[in-house]
Amino acid sequence: VFFGTMVQFWFWFTGNELPPVEDAPDDSKGARFATPKEKAALRAESGMAFGHVDGSPLLLQNEKHVLIMASTRSGKGVSLIIPHLLRYPGSAFVLDPKGENAKATGRQRAALNDKVLYLDPFGISGKPKARFNPLSRFTPDNMEAESKALAAALVMGERGIRDHWTGSAQQLLAAVILHVVTSPAVLPEEKDLGTVRALLLKNINSVLELMLESDAADGLLARLASSFLQTPEKEFGSILSTAQRETEILDNPFIVASLAAAGPGEEVNFADWHKGTMSVFLCLSAPKFPVFNRWLRLVLTAALDEMTDSLNPPPVPVCFTLDELATLGHLQIVENAVGLSAGYGIQLVTVFQDVAQMRDLYKGRWSSFVGNAGVRAVFSLDDYETAHYWSQFMGGHLVETTNQQQDIYGMTKGQSKGEAMRPLRTTEQLMLEFAKDQMLVLPQGSRPIISDRVPYFHDPGLSGLWDDPRGDEAKKPEIPAPPVVAPDPNNWISLTKRQEERHPNMKKFLLQNQQSKDVKKNS
Predict the structure, then answer these.
(1) At CA 348, angle to CA 478 and CA 174, rounded to 5?
(2) Are the C-beta atoms of 509 and 179 separated by less than 8 Å?
């Protein structure tokens, strides 16, 4: 105290002013929000915008993943996803439940990237349709792993649980995929999942016997075929039925056309991400997600596989914007990618509605989505459990309390002051404060920030970059998906008539197989 008094006297005596004292925050009290100075230090000239602060976008540079948590129809697309796609210079993979992202940002993505392609089986975006053949990625070195990953994407099982039937059906499907890829009897233009489906619906025993002669994948194909041929008939029938049921989406002509080895439309090659920049939109209306989510799963699996298989990442990470991720079910490739560093050139922007979605799908690993996110954006929390989780995540701070002592007559005898720990924001406060116009931004290693949610069409900085997704009345309406009928193994001829029409060499292929068997019997 004496020293401080002498310093003040010296400044008074000399006529100089005391240096300004910064109003430093008191970190000893626990959790708090970021100060203006701290927010200014976090701002970058480029990066993903997490709302607006003081009238301008809060751009944050982040080499890790991003987690967005908000309830349905809360404006995630217009306030976060679309603004990011309008700014991001690198490649992008966009899960687009409405086709709205493609409509609003397609023109700007074409200006930012070398090419933009639309995987849109039912034409909801009105953009030129591309196609993707997952079998085109197979090489002698990766075909075993790729076939297993592709089979796992298609055969999900009941609620994603991998029981005996699910696992065996995945093995059977992987074997048929390997056979289609490696067999010289299958023409190059027919090496796709349409042919795989056709073989599953035909006399599968004939196909398995042909596999016995193959040395593909170091003999793995022959070993799998031998194992299935020795399986008891009743058990094998259940395995085959599971594989057929889980691949029903391949009966849909629009889905099959989007996965064809040949046909109209440019083919997507995810290896192009290592050569330049490319944006790929997966467009599928939300009502079709439950029926065709396997199509989304297999395309996403192939895209992530391409990036994780290479140690030569692009200079700017590929941004995987995964809206409505929970509708795809549990994906092991996504769980693995969340733990990967930026060295693979991947940045995931995962979107969930609540904590329960993450926990139910990813069990003990769900917290990795939170822990490995460089930034978390939270708003419009309609679920009490989710709001309570983020309230605890933010931590608490000390507040002064006053306790009064009263006698038996209610008269105050005295009071004492103390401190108590309180949440920075209670569960109820989070649900009310961020319900409509504001966003809670939680950068890793920094204090929380409150920002304003500004739709892209109200952001002056994005003016002229976007197209109104509602303004094109000339677009054709979405093509209704024909009903998918479960296959009847006892009536495979009628069920595969469409596949035979599409694959004219299939009869020839099976006839050659039968002739080969007859020669063996006569010799």
Answers:
(1) 70
(2) no
Written as one string, the DSSP assignment of 328-358 is G---HHHHHHHT--GGGSEEEEEEES-HHHH
Read off the pLDDT of residues 200-257 as tens digits, 9 standing for 90 and up. Answer: 998 899 999 999 998 888 888 999 999 999 999 999 999 999 999 999 999 999 999 9
SS3 per-residue string spanning 186-232: CCHHHCCHHHHHHHHHCCHHHHHHHHCCCCHHHHHHHHHHHHHHCCC
SS3 for 255? helix
How far is 120 from 285, CA to CA, in rounded Å?
10
Other beta carbons less than 10 A from residue 430's beta carbon: 24
Closest CA to 282 of 300, 262, 264: 300
Only one residue has tokens 């395995």, namely 239
Q: At what angle do helices 355-362 and 384-394 cross, to 10 degrees?
A: 90
pLDDT tens-digit series, residues 401-441: 767 666 666 666 666 676 777 899 999 999 999 999 999 99
Phi-psi region of 327 (alpha: psi -120 to 50; beta: other; left: phi over 0): alpha
CA distances from 304 to 193, 198, 476 (A): 19, 27, 32
Q: Going by DSSP bridges, is the β-strand pair 56-60/48-53 parallel, antiparallel, or unpaired?
A: antiparallel
Q: What is the pTM of this model?
A: 0.83
Please identify which residue in the block is written with the tokens 């592709």: 150
- SS percent in the chain: helix, strand, coil, step 5: 50, 15, 35
